[in-house]
Write a structure and sequence with these properties.
CATH class of the largest domain in chain A: Alpha Beta
Helix content of chain A: 25-40%
Strand order of the largest sheet of chain B: 2-1-5-4-3
Distance between the termini of chain B: 99 Å
CATH topology of the largest domain in chain A: Rossmann fold
Number of helices of chain A: 8
Order of helices and strands of chain B: HHHHHHHHEEHEEEHHHEHEEHEEHEE
Largest interface: A-B, 34 and 37 residues
Number of domains of chain A: 2
Structural class of chain B: alpha+beta
Helix content of chain B: 55-70%
Strand order of the largest sheet of chain A: 2-1-3-4-5
Order of helices and strands of chain A: EHEHEHEHEHEEEEHEHHEE
Oligomer: heterodimer
Radius of gyration of chain B: 46 Å
Structural class of chain A: alpha/beta
Largest sheet of chain A: 5 strands, parallel
Number of strands of chain A: 12
Number of strands of chain B: 12
């Protein structure tokens, strides 16, 4: 397992799938400067072939490719590729973005995005997949003043024990498991309420709202439980 | 006319129509057989003879008077022709029945010759004078009825607000006066079309079509077997043709009737012309408005896009060409300006697209129940970078119900308001965001300590491309608030700005909470124990 905690990502190989040359150039330069090694693909077909032959650690996938539908590429990749996929979308591809996330993409970036945003997303995505498998559901999670003890089912904010209902705890637990990464509404509904309640996003809002009131100092300016409107929620990590 | 003067000021249509049909009776020619008045005049002569016989009259002069009286009456009642007949027969009867009775010799016949001649002469003069008087009375009467009809039609047309109405008025009156059906054919860019357009056109023969063209060109009335076509002329321009179908030919014999029809056609023409001009003025106004907006938009866009592009190009050129001559601080400064310009361009394009989508109605608004603190939180996360550490105080009432909104749009609205406040207010002054419930509405407030809105511009700030204090890039693209307004309106809400006590602007948005929000307040606890 490669080290992800520190600043230099230690030669992670990233496959950039993007048809626009300028955008590709920007990603290549930025990623190389920050210690990633970059492979490029300009079409979906090419991307699938390269992914298969080069086995990258992470894939950055543009959703507006000329040949294949982005969601279809995610579906195809997910049959064998377990590494993180970060999708890049333009603003008019909101629906595609959520679908791609539901199909197994790990996170998204909306054009235009800055370098720091890009690097933060990649770091979170890499940390995520590396953690899965080793210590998936246990241990103590800490982000700033928030501490979740997953062995004892206890949550502390600024040292204070917070009483959560079982559902609130499961919701928080799911977000912690994907810390730093966006979790779609469907994903949350599936994991907390089960397959039969995938369309009931208002349950989610009600519980998220009460969870926020318990954890956040100011629910209107959340420190941890961030809403990604029309997509889902993200547990922000420090 | 006295009849008209006594009318109540507002005559209901029905009454006016009844009146016009009564006028119709009077205007219509008599349908009696032409020989009848002559027979009547003979009866009058016979009656005079009888009277003179029955009552023995002292003098022949009295007998003559009785005959003259009959002639006068016939002239007054039946007109010129019958009165001449009455005169001739009266003189003949007088000579046959009364002269022999008084004088039996042939000589006396000769002596009474002057009497016969004078009697004949007086009879003819009286009959012609009386019948002229009668004709005058009748035609005065008809003239009055015609002008009354025209008056009623003009009044009806003056009140017309639509082409349908004009056609109805003309149809009603022509039906009442002449018992014919009619159609207004109006000149349009597409040719001669029935007015109103929805009407089924009368079937025309090829000959009629040809002659309509001539009528239009020469502005001349013409008639066919059962129709009359009248050009409708205004200010030397033919606006259409009035086609009366099934009109009695007897009506057309009278020049006065034709004049009435022509006057009516011209009256209708004036009204139609007025409507066309009104339509044109309106569409010209609309075009001018669109044109003005387009100009504002183009000049604004060319300014908003070209200025940042020019400055980006300039900065990059400097960085590339004079790299060795500029110090580190300048280099960073130039690159920051490039980034700001690029961000401005991005925002401006996004706003333009958003506004186009919102205004074209192509945007489907997805209303779902959302907690307001989440929406405010989402907006705050999005503006974080733009705020550059500036203080924003949020005050969201903890007991708000969930609100039926499109959260993405309302979040955008808040983002725009907060960014707007950040742009205008001094860097160190705080921005305040508050949400509370006001009855069945949710009120969102964004307040700043900026310069506020210049007086009289509180409405205009929500207009497209409007910028307080002229165009400069720091003042934004002039679209943010227009988007806010469009979003608020899509939600059935409203947005306005007030001056804040102590300086600054206070933007307020009211949104309806939406129906049935109470039912969904609680989610079923399906999770059970862990």
């Amino acid at each position: 397992m490669k080290d992800v905690g520190g600043a230099p990502p230690g030669g992670f190989q990233v496959l950039v799938v993007e048809d626009d040359e300028q955008m590709r150039r920007f990603l290549r330069v930025t990623l190389s400067v920050n210690g990633y090694s970059v492979t490029e693909a300009t079409t979906g077909t090419e991307a699938l072939a390269i992914a298969e032959s080069r086995r990258p650690d992470l894939i950055i996938l543009d959703l507006g490719l000329p040949d294949l539908d982005g969601v279809a590429i995610v579906n195809k990749l997910r049959k064998w590729f377990s590494g993180p996929i970060v999708v890049v979308s333009a603003r008019h591809q909101e629906g595609d973005k959520v679908q791609a996330l539901d199909s197994g993409a790990n996170d998204y970036l909306t054009k235009p995005f800055g370098t720091s945003e890009l690097l933060a997303r990649l770091r979170a995505a890499l940390r995520q997949t590396n953690r899965i498998g080793t210590e998936p559901e246990q241990g103590i999670f800490v982000s700033g003043d928030l501490r979740v003890d997953r062995d004892r089912y206890e949550v502390f904010v600024r040292g204070q024990l917070i009483k959560l209902t079982p559902l609130e705890y499961r919701l928080l637990h799911t977000l912690v498991r994907h810390a730093g990464k966006v979790v779609t509404r469907r994903q949350l509904l599936r994991e907390v309420w089960g397959e039969t309640h995938l369309e009931e996003s208002h349950y989610l809002r009600v519980y998220m709202s009460s969870l926020r009131r318990k954890l956040e100092q100011n629910p209107a300016r959340p420190e941890w439980l961030v809403t990604e409107q029309n997509v889902g929620y993200r547990l922000r990590i420090e | 006319m006295s009849q008209l003067a006594s009318l109540p000021p507002e005559v209901p249509d029905g009454q006016a129509r009844r009146r016009s049909s009564r006028l119709g009776d009077l205007l219509a020619p008599t349908h009696k057989s032409p020989s009848r008045p002559y027979l009547h005049s003979l009866l009058w002569v016979a009656a005079a003879t009888g009277i003179a016989h029955l009552f023995p009259l002292v003098d022949l002069a009295n007998v003559v008077m009785v005959y003259l009286l009959a002639v006068v009456l016939v002239a007054a009642k039946l007109g010129r022709g019958p009165s001449i007949v009455a005169t001739v027969f009266g003189v003949a009867s007088f000579v046959s029945f009364f002269v022999p009775q008084y004088y039996s010799d042939a000589q006396s016949d000769l002596r009474f010759l002057p009497t016969f001649l004078v009697m004949l002469f007086v009879g003819l003069v009286v009959s012609s004078l009386t019948s002229a008087l009668r004709f005058e009375a009748i035609s005065t009467n008809r003239r009055e009825k015609r002008s009354q009809a025209l008056y009623l039609i003009s009044r009806g047309l003056a009140a017309a607000e639509s082409r349908e109405f004009v056609a109805d008025v003309v149809r009603e009156h022509l039906k009442g006066i002449f018992g014919c059906s009619c159609q207004l054919l109006e000149y349009t860019p597409a040719g001669l079309l029935p007015c109103p357009r929805t009407e089924q056109p009368f079937v025309l023969t090829a000959e009629e079509r040809r002659r309509i063209q001539i009528a239009v060109r020469e502005r001349a009335t013409f008639d066919t077997e059962n129709s009359i076509f009248l050009p409708m002329v205004v200010a030397n321009e033919t606006v259409g043709v009035l086609h009366c179908q099934g009109i009695d030919r007897q009506h057309l014999a009278s020049a006065a009737n034709i004049r009435l029809l022509e006057a009516l056609a011209n009256n209708a023409a004036i009204v139609l012309h007025r409507m066309t001009l009104g339509d044109e003025a309106r569409s010209t106004q609309q075009r001018a408005d669109v044109e003005r907006l387009r100009n504002v938009m183009l000049s604004s866009m060319s300014h908003d896009f070209r200025t940042p592009l020019a400055s980006i190009t300039g900065a990059i050129t400097t960085l590339l060409d004079s790299a060795h001559r500029i110090d580190e601080a300048t280099r960073i400064d130039l690159m920051q300006s490039i980034r700001e310009d690029a961000e401005f361009l991005e925002r401006q394009i996004r706003n333009l697209l958003d506004l186009t989508k919102l205004e074209s109605g192509s945007l489907e608004i997805r209303r779902e129940l959302h907690p307001m603190d989440e929406v405010v939180g989402g907006a705050m996360t999005r503006v974080e970078k733009a705020l550059e550490g500036r203080r924003v105080d949020t005050d969201v009432s903890p007991h708000l119900p969930m609100v039926a909104i499109d959260a993405l749009l309302i979040e955008q609205l808040l983002v725009n308001l907060i960014e707007n406040a950040a742009r205008y207010a001094p860097a160190r002054s705080p921005i305040e965001v508050a949400v509370q419930q006001c009855g069945d509405r949710i009120r969102m407030q964004v307040a700043d300590r900026g310069p506020g809105i210049p007086s009289g511009q509180h409405e205009r700030v929500f207009e497209k491309f409007y910028r307080v204090g002229g165009a400069s890039r720091t003042s934004g693209g002039g679209l943010g608030l227009a988007i806010c307004k469009a979003i608020a309106q899509l939600h059935g809400g409203c947005i306005w700005v007030e001056d804040r006590v102590g300086g600054g602007a206070l933007f307020q948005v009211d949104l309806p909470i939406g129906e049935g929000q109470a039912a969904d307040q609680t989610a079923p606890n399906l999770g059970g124990a862990l």
